[in-house]
Structures are given as C-alpha cells and as structure tokens.
Amino acid sequence: xxxxxxxxxxxxxxxxxxxxxxxxxxxxxNVRTATNTIGAGYLLSDFRxxxxxxxxxxxxxxxxxxxxxxxxxxxxxxxxVFYSGxxxxxxxxxxxxxRADAVVAKxxxxxxxxxxxxxxMGRAPA
Length: 126
Hints:
The protein has five helices and five strands; from the N terminus they run E-H-E-H-E-H-E-H-E-H. By secondary structure, the protein is of the alpha/beta class. 44% of the residues lie in helices and 19% in strands.
C-alpha cells in the first residue's frame, strides 16, 4: 500500500489552517499543522513532511522566510511553498532569496494551492 504524501502547513491563522488542512486531506494528503515555527520544528523531525506550506508573517523568533532556511538545513529535499498575504512581488523576491519551490498568495483560489502542491509532489492533474 502506497503511503500518502506528508504535508506540513504552518500558519498563525486557525481558519487558514482548518481550510487548507481540509482541502489537502480531501485531495489525499496526510496533513499536520503548526501555528508557529517552533511547532513546525518539532513536526519536522517527528512527522518528516515531504512538503511544507509556509506562511511568511509568523509570530515568534523566526518568520516564515527565515524558517525556510532552517527547514532546508534540517530536512534537505523538502519542498517549500510560501503561502502568504504579503505583496506578491515581495513574496516572489523572498521565495527566490530563500529558495522556496513555489509561492501562492492568500486570496488566490484554493485549487491553485492544490495544483501547485500536486505538481511539486509529482501527481498528475485530475
């Protein structure tokens, strides 16, 4: 039996976490969530995600873009999608600077996030 790809969603907004988790689970992913980078760090080693959906504006010691560098060091090969409400040009610049695999602006249709994740996980479009 093939295991479901593992996705970690990191966002400080519980409504976003609930929505994205439900969408990804419905699409066939094994999903865990964290509200900050500290929680994400624990899940990174315990859950071992294949992909991380990462908000940029997070409370705590590390912002999402800073956490991206740490995630890459701790779990080489993990795919990272920046998912944020900041200005799209700035989001794209941060993604390039921190080597995120993709960006999705909050407010974009939810299916766009799923399409990008499916592509990064090597899934054929439905």
